[in-house]
Amino acid sequence: MTLDRAFRLSSILLAATGFASLTLSIPLPFWLLTLAGAAFTVALLRVNPTSGVSGVVQHLRFSALTWNIFLLLAFAGFWIDLLLVAQDLLPAGIHFLVLLLVNKLCNLDQRRDFLHLYAISLITLLASAAMTTQIWYAPFFLVYLVAGVWTLLLYHLLQEREEGVSHHAIGTHSGETHSPLPRITPRFFWTTNAMAAGAFALTVLFFFSIPRVGVGLLQHSHGESLRTTGFSEQVDLGVIGPVKQDPSIVMRVELPDSLGTPSTREPLYLRGVAYNRYDGKSWSNNLPLRRMLTELPQGTFTVRTPGTKPPPQAQALRQEILLEPLDTAVLFGAPLAFAVKGNLLSVQSDLMGSLHLASPSHTRVQYTVYSMPTRLNPAESATTAVLYPEFILQQYLQIPSVSPQIVDLAHRVTQPATSVSQAITLIHRHLLANYRYNLDVPSLQSAHPLEDFLLTRKTGYCEHYATAMVVMLRTLGIPARLVTGFLATEWNEFGGYYTVRQRDAHAWVEVYFPKSGWITIDPTPPAPESIGHTWWQSAGQVMDSGRLHWDRLFVHFSANDQLTVVQGIRESGDAVRTRLSEFLHTLSAQSSATFTQFMSALTRGGIPETALFIILALGVVYAGTLLLRSARNKASQPDVLSPHQRAVVMLYTSMLDCLAQRGIVKSASTTSRELLHQVQERWSEASPAVHALTQLYTQVRFGHAPFTAEDHTVAAGLLRRLQTLDPSTTPARQP
Q1: Domain assignments of the chain as residue spans, ordered by start
Q2: Is 0.70 surpassed by the pTM of this model?
Q3: How do residues 562-572 score in pLDDT, each as one tens digit?
């Protein structure tokens, strides 16, 4: 591939990489994509204008006035887009930027046009970085970096050739024709790729070392939040089937302090919102009052529910949660959360311990939740009568006018119970044993959906089971409430975290005990699990793990993370330094002891110390002799040829090729004097030129004589004269 062709292809690749990353960051109009695609096609066809369509495109050019009018129209369109269509500076600016890219791709005639193209491609790459935080940006950035190194090196080489600097011997000579364009070999691209890899490593190093500012200057979100149709502030006993089939990822949850293997991982309940009021068809919260949580140092918010005090974080279940943009302001976490930590502006909590942001976030939210799982106190497990606080009785015993059959069912199921906890267990077993879990339950406009589930249909989903248990417990005077959130069951073996999807939306029950608090009970039978994992599922887990690490290491890499890395490096350095010092101290002690033992053994053997020193001195002299001999051998090796020497070698080699074509071949054992003798005998007309070239070659190559521009001109003239001699005058080659 020629230098000019490689340069143009690399420039187009650079622009195409920036444009591709931009198209994945923001949806562009179809007409703009079509126009840009046509511009790239024209630029590629002009790379090798030989014949056919390429030749037609090469000769099809518009005047400068035409392109100036195009730019004026594009600028006017930018203001119309900004004021009337998009009404946002960033999308309007991106549309105008694409039009500038189209204009420049169709006008790559001069060197400054390529420089303008590079600037536009860089702006497109920066714009895509401002519009997205997805992991796919990383390969585009890497390709852009490699193409950028290619392009800049090729631009420099092409500029040097045009200025005449690339002539490695003496420079440009007047009257001398230019040599053809050099070809680009695979070695060039391997070398540039290595340089790009080094530049990428430096980029990563700068990213982690530059101080964090907390807020990106170009940070702006134009994406839409994921609609959580399976989760809302109100629960209706209605349609949930389509939600359960949605595989969209809602969040990823890590348990850094948790032990056990993936096979022993239990499902993780991620609590969202609790409800205390049921009107016969839907659940709601009549305690919507939220209070701002107090922020402690390092971005920690403490949750204080009535009658509880926060336990120490060392005894809690720590969850590292990466929450996708949702259309709800709820923060999820394992029950019951008592602290939230993260780069959050504010956190709110209601009287039932639910956590909320001030408003739904349009970007990913990364936070840490500290939860203290509640367990039933053994003292309350056998209690027959429980004394509940007045507030609990007022808020969590409300039931609508339900069918007497439901009340009778609750008493009949719990008749054998001798304690409150046993009554709860009996209702739980009854629902699991006598009802069937089904997601495809038709949404009926029934006035009494709970009665239909318990008494007639006996099939339903989690909301039916949870509602039935809460209502049956309340008819017995046991405070209970319904809770919605997500049930995490999908464990990513490659990333070490739970993957929570839309279909994992779930509802369960919380029962109150005065000493134990709110106890989680799930009356819904488990859904059937798929057997094994396909290779496609494993590949998806690997890709999702990569996205999580990308977000943790790059998107949300904060100043605290930077300090943590610095502290870890410092601790590792101190540990290595301590181990190295201990090793050197041990080695020194062992060496000293070995030398002392050796000297003692020699002394006891009767060898005088003078003889010992003589032996050591002879050894040092011998080692020095070997080093000196090695240095001389290296010095005797031929040095690297200078540019002048390489130039004269090229001329001498061309002379030998010319002689070989006429039957005079120089073997490896033939000296220069012997070669001159052969030429004198077999081709006397060429003898003066060969003699002059051989003498010049010997003086410059071995005598290190200067090789001036005049010498090069004379030598080139002699070579041309030798090449233009009539071959018919050459005598027949003698055996």
Answers
A1: 3-170+191-209, 560-636, 643-729
A2: no
A3: 777 777 788 88
